[in-house]
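Quick one: co-fold with zinc ion.
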Amino acid sequence: MISVEIKTILEIVFISCLFCKGIIRLFKTFDYFRVLKIFLLKVYKHRSTAFSHYIYPSLVWKIPAKEKHIYLTFDDGPTPHVTEKVLDLLKEFGVKATFFCVGKNVKNYQHIYLKILNDGHAVGNHTQNHVNGWKTSADKYISEVEEASKHISSKLFRPPYGKLSPVQILKLKKIYKIVMWSCLSGDFDQSLNIEHSIKQLKNASQPGAIIVFHDSKKAERNLFEILPEYLQYLASEGFVTKAL
Ligand SMILES: [Zn+2]
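Sure, here it is.
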């Protein structure tokens, strides 16, 4: 006769063996490369990493702050209808933000640019034609920024796609504060999971965080699904949203 205790021990051993066998099988069939790729893409697309802070420590990734201050930023405008709708939302919630404008858009939609300023928001330079720093020579890149500066009065600069070469950084730093981000909303991503994005934004909402949205046609659908809920969240958590 086997005692109850021994039976229980045998059961535990048996179930453990089955469990281990299952785990081993799972490990053998697991596509590590795919998981790593998805993880890196998600991190790259939606969060600045500690890694990038170390590579570019002289760029601004967050604002030193003890109070619950958050810095909302909007890239790529002004865009008719989209920027104006963003301005209405910001006014409704009584918050200030920073708009990193593309020079050619300011030239084409001067009245929207002036409305951004009249509403008390800050502006920054985002190059004349939204050029990629990794595909543009340093001289050409600087002339892009200079061209945009004829339309945008600001000492703030954000590189399109977050891409800059070390030489471009050295040259721009003499004049501009180069502003990167703590968290990308991912609103430009057509396959974005809205709930996931809002969760990421809430997690990233720490004192001094810099958050990126886009007042562009491409981001419009996602932007207006995310932004009202996020502004509501910031208000309910007592965050003060400021311009840079
Ligand atoms: Zn951009």
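If it helps, Confidence is low (pLDDT under 50) at residues 37-46.
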